[in-house]
Amino acid sequence: MTNLPHERKPRLDGKVAIVTGAGASADVVGNGQATAILFAYEGAKVLLVDNNEERVRGTLDAIKSHGGTASVYTGDVTSAESCRDMVQAALDRYGRLDILHNNVGIGGAGTVVEVSEDVWDSVMEVNVKSMMLTGKYAIPAMAETGGGSIINISSISAIRPRGLTAYTVSKGGVIALTHGMAIDHAAQGIRVNCILPGPVYSSMVAPGMSEDRRDTRRGSSPLGVEGTPWDIAWAAVYLASDESKWVTGVAFPVDGGVTLVSPPR
Ligand SMILES: NC(=O)c1ccc[n+]([C@@H]2O[C@H](COP(=O)([O-])OP(=O)(O)OC[C@H]3O[C@@H](n4cnc5c(N)ncnc54)[C@H](O)[C@@H]3O)[C@@H](O)[C@H]2O)c1
Q1: Ligand 1 neighbour 25 (Cβ under 6 A)
Q2: Ligand 1 center to residue 105 CA distance, Å?
Q3: In terms of C-beta density within 10 A (0-12 exposed, 13-18 middle, 19 or more buried), how is residue 78 classed?
Q4: Are 178 and 152 within 8 A, CB to CB?
Q5: 48 pocket-lining for ligand 1 (C-beta < 6 Å)
Q6: Can you give the pTM of this predicted structure?
Q7: Is 68 left (phi over 0), alpha (psi -120 to 50) or beta?
Q8: Cα angle: 172, vertex 176, 180; to 5 degrees
Q9: How far is the CA of 265 from the centre of ligand 1 (A)?
Q10: Local structure of 190: helix, strand or coil
């Protein structure tokens, strides 16, 4: 009659997750940070990956204070060696790997006329190449135990550009990478989806953002509500869990409806 479970278990019970960029680069919660905290809250053991040990400490403390299980791996996801070692650390510490959440990403302002080659190359390296590298080592480990879920963080900037062209192209690349990985690894039981966050108030954008600008961003959503990293994190929990076991290759906007709205005439 119904396939509802009799007991409510934590949604990620028994799973092991890697979250990249699990720290926060400012004094405001980050997208990766919120996701790592909710993954642990829902029962996953979480490897917190960041290239800055200081920034990730708050995430570890928050998880521990709720009785969750997590530990830190300090490394740079643009380095193949770090990506290989980070996967090995998850296997050594927790015995398996079920979830890879690729959150690391940096901004890149300017048109093609304005942007420097160095900025262009570094945005592509941090935002796209890193996800190829983490996947290269995580996928064989996930396949060993029958599969897993990979979540890549893109952006609505990929489908709604505005003068951040290096960033837009990199986040479009993340969508294409998601589609490619979803097809290539479906037979191994690995699902690959991406989230397109809208203008959420997170550690990445908070520094220097005025209240006026926050208001404008809030007003860009037909809901009239400011998005937070927790909104992104709950979407990630769904995609990481078995609730989404028949969902792969999806580009999921979590944007309060921002991308539905046309510019005023
Ligand atoms: N805030 C928004 O409005 C918004 C909108 C769309 C997409 N996003 C996406 O959200 C993601 C970032 O969110 P956040 O709030 O967690 O950002 P954040 O800037 O706070 O970064 C999180 C962590 O990533 C770490 N990091 C940076 N480069 C790294 C590297 N090479 N290797 C390992 N760690 C590294 C930083 O030290 C930091 O602690 C990005 O992919 C971004 O493009 C944000």
Answers
A1: yes
A2: 5
A3: middle
A4: yes
A5: no
A6: 0.97
A7: beta
A8: 165
A9: 34
A10: strand
H/E segment holding residue 61: helix 53-65
212 Cα–ligand 1 center, Å = 23
Q: Could you confirm whether 238 is annotated as catalytic? A: no
Q: How far apart are CA 110 and CA 122, in angstroms?
A: 14
Token readout for 125 is: 């390296």
Tokens of 177: 């990478």
- What is d(CA 165, CA 8) in angstroms, rounded to the nearest whole number? 45
Question: What percentage of the chain carries pLDDT values higher than 90?
Answer: 94
The domains located in the chain, with CATH, are 16-246 (3.40.50.720)
Instruction: Name the token pair of 66.
Output: 């709720």
DSSP per-residue letters across 81-137: HHHHHHHHHHHHHHS---EEEE-------B-TTT--HHHHHHHHIIIIIHHHHHHHH
Q: Which of 212, 217, 91 is nearest to 145 (CA)?
A: 91
Per-residue DSSP letter, 205: T
Contact criterion met (CB below 8 Å) for 48 and 19: yes
Report which secondary-structure segment, H or E, holds 193.
strand 190-197
Using an 8 Å Cβ cutoff, are 138 and 97 in contact? yes
Q: How far apart are alpha carbons 240 and 238 in whole angstroms?
A: 5
pLDDT tens, position by position, 200-257: 999 999 998 999 999 999 999 999 999 999 999 999 999 999 999 999 999 999 999 9
